[in-house]
Amino acid sequence: MKSKRLNNLGKIDRDKTLNFTWDNKKLSGFEGDSLASALLANNIGIVGRSFKYHRPRGIFSSGVEESGALVTIGSKDRRDPNVRATTQELFDGLKASGQNAFPNVNFDLGGINNYIGRFFAAGFYYKTFMGIPPFEWGKGTTIWMLFEKLIRKAAGMGSASRLPDPDSYEHAHDFCDVIVVGSGPSGVAAAIEAAEKKLDVILVEQDSLVGGNQLSENDFSTSEIFNQLKSLGIKVMTRTTAFGLYDNCVVGLLERVTDHLSIPDSTLPRQRFWTIRAKHIIVGSGALERHIAFNNNDIPGVMTVNASKHYLNRYGVLTGEDIVIATNNDSVYETANELSEAGANVTVLDSRTNIEIDSNKNFEIRKGFVPYNINGTKKIDSLDISKSENINKIDTINCDQVLLSGGWSPAVHLLSHRGVKPKWDPENACFIPSDTKENITMIGSSRGLWNKDDCIASGVAGATDALNRLGVSKTNYFFPKPGGWKNPIKPLYEVKYKKSRSKSFVDYQHDVTADDVRLAHREGFISVEHLKRYTTLGMANDQGKMGNIIGLSLMADLLNKEIPEVGTTVFRPPYTPVPIGALTGRNVGKHFRPLRVTPMHQWNIDHGAKMIEVGLYQRPWYYPKKMKHSVIHILEKQQL
């Protein structure tokens, strides 16, 4: 991958240069960069190593769904592991490094696991505990404990500091009529509509800027939207993630107060844990672009199409020079045009054959083709392609980047926290939210809407729904129908590799391949919940953001069922990780268990009582006498 900074695009401040280090190498970026965009601008391709096989990983996305670019930030007592480079704002003096590698991510001795990967297939740890096949060598408690130590030592990604955390954290509470999650077109429309009806509105955005996916548009102005929201009295909370929904319209938020500052104010907490009690919740959490499973689909240089658009128009970074886009839907063509106009040589592989595309034809379109195999180890050398109807390698394209778009998955995670099962939409090949009786409304792309005008209309409808439920008005409304593309999507989850030992990754974060899903099926793990635990698909902080739909489609195919018949796993809070420090807040040290005393406490202390904790209170244990006086008293009594 040959990524570089462009001079004529981006919303960064080029007058403010920021210096940072990556693996002890001094680099620079600009104010407004993320760590990921700064690394790409400096043509850094490998930023991490995968969990199990230690394969080199690059930057796959531009948001919270990132599963490859997990890095360690800071040093000593402020070392923070497993931070997504895509969501970490760049600041002057930032220290970042790769993790899960020795001696470094470019040359990792742990990469030997990739060559003996057949011994680390799904469920290998369960089988190891029962004895090493074929003769089940090593049975018994002793060898079990040995294997447990080895596996536990190998588990995890980054290494946390063992020193006391020097930062402070706070807990805070607030109340409102309506809380809107997400500041995309639908979220902004909903917040404005509710505020104009004199409701108390809080707008929550996990990014540092409002705008959502509009930040990938070259002519979008975030300051105009922000000023409009503030003028209506809307409380705008940026750098704040809604990580969970709870009973009675309670929302859990994590606000990153000083994580983006090089010299934080000592009077401010690092992060603030919010509990918001609202009368109505409107969720405009958007949708996540899916990848496609095919051989070697994890080589550094693979990225989602929309991520490349964000890096181009928000950060002014062209992510490749010779780019192949593989897709099954219409969402990629605007990006293909913009990448081509920025100077890249672009080829689009569309798995569909009968489609109509409005394009200025400054890039090549090959209809009826899919990606088959990537050639390369630490970077992309070329891409083998195949006909979508007859899977066999038929051609090779020289390229330095492969962008993927296998469809979009509405981010229904927050609604899932309320126990609401999503429903399958076959026309858009995705799960969309089901109805709920609680005061929660889903809007925008989280409802499966791909057209910007439809998203805005859904935001207005969502606010009207809230107004009606709160008794403020009685207005008729309707939500646009899911969809919005000119040509129908063609489901594309996997391109089967015809050779043995395929590395077609479904879940990038946990090294789960398509073959792992098939192995789980052969061994009887056909329930989606069993599949999740046996293969680790969609577990930990990923929560199925990237590969869940692909894994479900593979299991459905093996069972000769449709995806809705197989079902989906339950997405649990938090949506993204919440640091333990934020959960604890100020309840540390002497504040962990506040001192509770009785009215006689000071009298007891004045009379020399030794105090102990009895339940929640301190009470006297005993009143010691001075030894010297006691000895004299005894001697006098005995007349000695």
Description of the structure:
The chain is an alpha/beta fold and 640 residues long. It is built from 16 helices and 32 strands. A hairpin with a 2-residue loop joins strand 2 and strand 3.
Instruction: For the record, give the distance between the C-alpha atoms at the N and C termini, rounded to a whole number.
Output: 98 Å
Q: Which class do the helix and strand fractions yield? A: alpha/beta
Q: What is the overall shape? A: globular
Round the Cα radius of gyration to an integer and report it. 28 Å
DSSP summary, beta strand count: 32
Number of domains: 4
According to CATH, the fold-level topology of the largest domain is FAD/NAD(P)-binding domain
Low-confidence segments, ≥5 residues, pLDDT <50? none
How would a textbook summarize the main sheet? 7 strands, mixed
Q: Per CATH, which architecture of the largest domain? A: 3-Layer(bba) Sandwich
CATH class of the largest domain: Alpha Beta
Q: Work out the strand percent.
A: 15-25%
In CATH terms, the superfamily of the largest domain is: FAD/NAD(P)-binding domain
Helix content: 10-25%
Number of helices: 16
Average pLDDT across residues?
91
Summarize the structure.
This protein has 640 residues and is an alpha/beta fold.
Q: Would you spell out the secondary-structure blueprint of this structure?
A:
Layout: E1 4-5, E2 13-22, E3 25-31, H1 35-41, E4 48-49, E5 56-57, E6 70-73, E7 80-84, E8 94-97, H2 124-130, H3 141-154, E9 169-181, H4 185-196, E10 201-204, H5 222-231, E11 235-237, E12 240-246, E13 250-256, E14 271-283, E15 287-289, E16 302-304, H6 305-313, E17 317-318, E18 322-327, H7 333-341, E19 345-350, E20 364-367, E21 369-375, E22 382-387, E23 393-398, E24 401-405, E25 408-410, H8 413-416, E26 423-425, E27 430-432, E28 440-442, H9 452-469, E29 505-507, E30 512-513, H10 514-522, H11 528-535, H12 548-558, H13 563-566, H14 580-584, H15 601-606, E31 610-614, E32 617-622, H16 627-638
Helix pairs in contact: 2-3, 4-9, 10-12
